[in-house]
Amino acid sequence: MVIEVSSSPKPVYLDHVELTGGLWQERQATNRSRTIPAIHHQLETTGRLDAWRMDPNRERPKHRSVIYMFWDSDTGKWLEAVAYSLHTHPDPELEKQADGIISLIEKAQKPDGYLNTWFGNLEPENRWRNLRDWHEMYNAGHLIEGAVAYYKATGKRTILDVLSRFADHIDSRFGPGDGQKRGYPGHPELELALVKLYRETGDARYLNLSKYFIDERGQEPNYFDIESRERGEDPADFWAQTYRYCQAHKPIREQTEATGHAVRACYLYAGIADVALETQDQELVEVSRRLWDDLTSHQMYITGGLGPAHSNEGFTFAYDLPNETAYAETCAAISLAFCAHRMFHLDPNGRYIDVMERALYNNVLSGASYEGDHFFYANPLTSYPNVNPYEHWSGITSDRHYRRQAWYFCPCCPPNWARIVASIGGYFYSTTADRLYVHLYNRNQADFAFGGKAVRLEQQTDYPWDGTVQFSVGAETPVEFELALRIPGWCRSFTLEVNGVPQPITPVNGYAVIARRWENGDRVKLVLDMPVERVAPHPEIREDAGHIALQRGPVVYCLEEVDNGPRLANIAIPSESQLQASFDADLFGGVSIITGDAVRAEPSSWPGELYQPLSVVQYSRSPFRFKAIPYYLWANREPGEMRVWIREW
Amino acid sequence: MVIEVSSSPKPVYLDHVELTGGLWQERQATNRSRTIPAIHHQLETTGRLDAWRMDPNRERPKHRSVIYMFWDSDTGKWLEAVAYSLHTHPDPELEKQADGIISLIEKAQKPDGYLNTWFGNLEPENRWRNLRDWHEMYNAGHLIEGAVAYYKATGKRTILDVLSRFADHIDSRFGPGDGQKRGYPGHPELELALVKLYRETGDARYLNLSKYFIDERGQEPNYFDIESRERGEDPADFWAQTYRYCQAHKPIREQTEATGHAVRACYLYAGIADVALETQDQELVEVSRRLWDDLTSHQMYITGGLGPAHSNEGFTFAYDLPNETAYAETCAAISLAFCAHRMFHLDPNGRYIDVMERALYNNVLSGASYEGDHFFYANPLTSYPNVNPYEHWSGITSDRHYRRQAWYFCPCCPPNWARIVASIGGYFYSTTADRLYVHLYNRNQADFAFGGKAVRLEQQTDYPWDGTVQFSVGAETPVEFELALRIPGWCRSFTLEVNGVPQPITPVNGYAVIARRWENGDRVKLVLDMPVERVAPHPEIREDAGHIALQRGPVVYCLEEVDNGPRLANIAIPSESQLQASFDADLFGGVSIITGDAVRAEPSSWPGELYQPLSVVQYSRSPFRFKAIPYYLWANREPGEMRVWIREW
Lengths: 649, 649
Prior knowledge:
The structure is a homodimer. By secondary structure, chain A is of the alpha+beta class. Helix content of chain A is 34%, strand content 19%. The first copy, chain A, has 4 domains: 44-254, no CATH class; 271-427, no CATH class; 430-528, Sandwich (Immunoglobulin-like), CATH 2.60.40; 532-648, no CATH class. The radius of gyration of chain A is 25 Å and the shape is globular. Chains A and B meet through helix 13, strand 14, strand 15, strand 19 and strand 20 of A and helix 11, strand 14, strand 15, strand 19 and strand 20 of B. Strand 20 of chain A pairs antiparallel with strand 14 of chain B.
């Protein structure tokens, strides 16, 4: 199928969408009050802001670490989160703080446009010498994203100009021309940032450079081999052993599998989708879809988590989805949401948004504590004392439980969480000339225009705790457009009314489309049936065989020890057990929980050694009421075991 | 309970026991014809024998690696295996080959008695400077064990004298005296070897040195800290982070848990048991039993495997027994057998031999291929394409299956397998002045003496495939002694006859004891009921919850893909299924297999995405006949999945 790229929908920017309540409004408020300040505090206390100040007396640690080499990205992501927040919730104090940091960044820029706190000052001789590992381009990408968002939020050009100069510098150094290096980012991210910069500035050089990076990637002779040899290193000594790690093992257009480091992969795929859309390159569209299909059909957790392995922070092989050791980095789920959002705009189909929603309500939200100031890097689907996804080691003694941390040595996840939560409104709607796509449901009001006529749409709902969504239309004059309401993949029956009149509509590509001349006060009522579902895993996922997960709406549930006692592996849910959803107003500000009859299949006593003939063990199958809470809220109470996949009886 | 160490039974050395058929005779024949020559070939081709030759033109690789630092142990273990083999099966060619190598070892010894191919020549300045990591004492131990065995087998003193001189050298350097270092082996092994040397030579200095090593271990200030600082290193930089790794985190007499590297642990515990026995140190007896109980009650696989983790090749925490990533090193199961054998002689109880038998018939035997020339290092209990216990990495491409290898960079396991198989006869019997303990069953004839009168005992049996064991007694004159037949822990009913007369005997401490004045031609018939058992895991072993294992007699079974198709995780054995053992004469020279009805619980089709509502998935529970083979024989046919723990329905 050839995609009509030219008529593809455009996302509605977050400034058009005001959250007026519900889960996302609450998470955004926490983000503003706790998360963004907590991250600023960490940027300051860990020396990341001093790095911009370049005070020779306040230099960053002297020993070399690639971690220090991507400090700039933390500032970039924080700035981006601040920008989104300012755009919807002006805050002069916060803006002043951001302006101060921007001023530091501006001063740190070199006359030739180069901008990097490590290589700009401590190792100028090593600029652009190791694209594979040293993250200069990754930092550039995050700073560009921050700059574009800040400019859009405030109209202040300083940071946009600074980063445009840096992009110009990169454009002059890299490319197919004489004297240029044929390199590309070791950690993709700049690709999608350059497309944002192109869209904001209209300067096609940025789009072309992004396309160059994508097309040059993985070509032979491999650039990472070349630059390794130029440093006097043997390319075979690359620690990760394979360029699959950074998706540079073969040209992009020949790639068929999601490989390597999961965040690199999804940032890259997002960039590919952006370039495909902007250049209307049908082959790249196909590449995007092929990689997406592999990613989501073979390598994704039910929580929207990606990357089972700690060793490469990424993918291993199809259906390899261990739960206890799942890495499932918060950034990877966020990058999956980025990717999904872009895929929709290439190929307007609700299946992409289904995955985006799965990631958002589960692995993304679990990335921060309910209080907003502690963060998960890895998001396992089972947690057991003494086990954590980073290592499996006899020396674990300090804390038996895997818990969220206030910060990480490599803290990519906290500011990533802050920026996606601050910008969540931007994921709600897309438009074409005559259609309004509604992707996500949450109380909000949003403004659009069709044919030059303004429309306001208001959503009233308790989604995701309830499947009823009521829309009201505000329009000074009647407006003709198609309202395309997403019928989520998890939803197996729904009803739709306009002004009380049932609409027997069959969804097309995941959307129920109501074409109408809308008048002020029109009301639409969408009722998505939202029963508790037992979810079965694909039969190739060996880790989940014999188990089910509980899901209601987009929310995946888990058992925690605090509610269900220890040894969660011994709990089974009989197939005939009635499962009940109820709203617990006292739990985390009000969430739906799931309860039901379960059995704890355990011996009443154990006769001695570790292994016993089954016939001598007296198993009692004690019935009890289990209580499951949303996965994303685990590890916010008393520490203990956690489990998503539960034995079926 | 105070152990009467002085009256404890003594093992009957292997030269008294002639295997006359059955499984162990077949494995020994393969060991002689294939394994011992294969290992010699590797010693030669990898440079290990050249290392003894110390030809400056044929030096070992120049770059430093701790692996090269324990090359000597490989020669030591090969020599020990050869010695046992020569003792029961003289072979002039093999003896000549061994004598040649002994001559190289002799020439490599320094005038002061020091003996080590790496530090003796390449780094003489670093002798004894890093006991923690550099394996000089470990090498010494294995060479001593080889020397003692060779002397016993051949009566030739050369190698025993060489190693006695080396032991004297060590004794002069280490101890509590002035000018001595207060060190002890980083990798325990020398402790048990010194007790062997003491027993062979009668020189109490060797026993005292072993006791010193044990008592000094883990004392403060920690010797490994001291020697680190002497090398100019910060002890905190120890790669393993904790001295739990080498069981030196606290004094031995204060230790209560099996910790760290599993092989180090069990070699150490075996040495402790030896010293406890020889010194009649009741406290050390208690320490041995405490550590044994922790080891076998909390940290042992059903196969007798030890050590779930690759990261430390060892223990993590109680009940942490993952199957797919189980390290369960072959050497660890062998060291468990060593330990068990010694524990019995400290505390004559069949429960230790039960564990020894579990290890021998499962994790030990699985260490080598049926053909005897390929070896497992790690012995997982589940195997799945692309997964191996060493790593979990996206780069796996060369061989999708975990298989035995002809050799390893660190090849401790192959010669360890060779020496335990060659010496298996030495694990069959123990005696006191008036009792003959029979531990293991396999066709053999063995010679003993009680009160100066010779007795020959002959076993006729197809154990482990059949539970019937017939004994006949040969004695020129009647002999009074107690025949103590082990009633294995796995056996829940048995019958015993003497000359056709039933003997209603209740076993005491795991042995059925027949006190009698035995006459020539007396016949004993022991019938151990050997049904197929479904085995239940301890309820704290989360990985095995809802699963059973199949065991018959001492043999643990597994499913392989070649017999049962792929996706073994989806196979369940209904609780009402009749399980049948049958003898398959064509499989690996004849072994018992288990068959029965199972179901393959899989959807007949899968509607699309990875996760589906259970209600829309049509599960078919297709019945089929499963076939299970002995675990130790897995990975000898077509590569594919393997599984020990099977879902119960």
